Amino acid sequence: MSMAMNDSFDHIGEVLRNAETIAIAGHVRPDGDAIGSIVALGHSLMLAGKKVRILSEDKVPLNLAFLPEVGLVEQPPESIENLDVAVALDTAVKDRLGDNVNRVFAGAKVLVNMDHHGTNPRYGHLNYIEMTSPATGQIIFDFLKSQGLPMDAVVRDHLYTAISTDTGSFQFSSTTAHTHRIIAEMMEAGSQFWELCQKLYNTFPLRRLLLQKALLNEMKLSAGNRIASWAMSHELQSEIGTQPGDTEGLIDMLRGIDGVISPVIFEEMADGRVRVSVRSKDERLDVSKVCLVFGGGGHRMASGARMAGPLAVAEQRFLEALEDEIKRIG
Amino acid sequence: MSMAMNDSFDHIGEVLRNAETIAIAGHVRPDGDAIGSIVALGHSLMLAGKKVRILSEDKVPLNLAFLPEVGLVEQPPESIENLDVAVALDTAVKDRLGDNVNRVFAGAKVLVNMDHHGTNPRYGHLNYIEMTSPATGQIIFDFLKSQGLPMDAVVRDHLYTAISTDTGSFQFSSTTAHTHRIIAEMMEAGSQFWELCQKLYNTFPLRRLLLQKALLNEMKLSAGNRIASWAMSHELQSEIGTQPGDTEGLIDMLRGIDGVISPVIFEEMADGRVRVSVRSKDERLDVSKVCLVFGGGGHRMASGARMAGPLAVAEQRFLEALEDEIKRIG
Ligand SMILES: [Mn+2]
Ligand SMILES: [Mn+2]
């Protein structure tokens, strides 16, 4: 089989139908697409009578803890007896499943790999990689439908969560006409998603506002207002009691400012090192080049690096390099 | 004809086809649905060869000024010669067209009224009121399609803007399966909406962040953290140079806080009076009752009032009344 070919939904469906015990997992530090995809597929296969274990190396983040049947997600056991099939979802490289999930998955007879990251090296025995899909959840919808697998309200809520979060509520360029038709179909099947949206997008802990407040009070504009940056100290995070997920999307507050072409957040970690996240809004500015200088990397428009502290020094060194790069493009 | 019956799209279409000169307007202080609907219908009728004037009592807000062909929107002239048909869109009561628009519209032979507000008293000669539609833009899509009227990229961008803004990017409970199918159809016709979304949702003036910063620094929690409120002084607004649209949605920052059931914003106006906006997140709390005490009103879950200043006194009086009402529900 060619490395670039997808196995068919029918083939993957057959393997799952023939299995008795199935384990499913997504990537470490799971997001809405990872949790939504593993619970949707897992719950559907349970309804179809399979013994299913839904695993996640890291806990379900607090902002997704309200989702129905999300209690099915468990941290990996030592091993699972008679594991017929392991399914990796939304996980671009095998390592990102996490060590404990990989240990369990090593005992499976077959590994299925379904994902929408174009860089996925097809590490499964069976692979379905579709990079034109904005979310793994969209692939799972198509798969369940093609195989006539059960899609109840719980499955639909998780598919919606997967698709909606990975498309920024249908705003990202990855959104397709098919994406909207899937949502229409799930609504016609009886789902309403507004309460889910309220909880996903319009409910947050006070901690989140305290972080935003610190960002707004401490942010700096430089390079003629083309860079907007914030250095988030570890002390602040301790004071606020920051939880995983709290800082997600904070960079968008800087990103959205009219005239800013490069927002940056410096996050001081517990060990004193500094995690840098940087974005570009200008096709000519390649922020991965700046990150490369500090041993990081990523994409042209979104990159990161980890630098030695102290925070203020890392901030200054990185901003100088970024400013030079901005001057270079004119 | 019964007051509760809609005139058919065919009837309205016939009237427009038979017209030579048509004027179209939405409500004062126009939002995305108003601008999107009037430009979409107006541009389509222009493509169909009609003389069309697209009017708005108030200017297009800055956050919508990037929209294609939005320069077609003009402030009302003294009158329009030989005006055959006037079309009011997204305007629940005739007064809300504005005095100058109403003066122009008074010269029209026929007034058409298309809207999605259930309370619309059907003030047109021809009326099409569909309260199950989440946006007037959704009605306009169905109308144009049913009548085979032109729908080019400009029309589609405006319909998307109308529908997306009035549904909170497809998150509100008013969103229907049909809504998603319309977006799918417009994408299949060749539109991509991500750049539009970037400009609509992820671009804002620095002023906006300065307002958010003031809100976060000055907000107060009361009633056991069930009320989150902010008093926005006129001085602050002058300092920042607030423009129409800048304050829109600020209340959602308070609304989203976990545990808060009633967010309130007090806005000191130029004349010293205070505009109160209040929301309820708890079905048992009817905020319109509290507003009624101060001569205001609205809906159970979203109300407003205008109070005498000074700001601090209005704030205290209103919060006391709101707290009493919250205690009453327990
Ligand atoms: Mn994904
Ligand atoms: Mn509307």
TrEMBL record, chains A, B:
Residues 22-163 form the DDH domain. InterPro entries: DDH_dom, DHH_sf, DHHA1_dom, Oligoribo/pAp-PDE_c-di-AMP_PDE. Residues 240-327 form the DHHA1 domain. GO terms for molecular function: nucleic acid binding. Coiled coil: none annotated. It comes from the Bacteria. This is Bifunctional oligoribonuclease/PAP phosphatase NrnA. It comes from Phragmitibacter flavus.
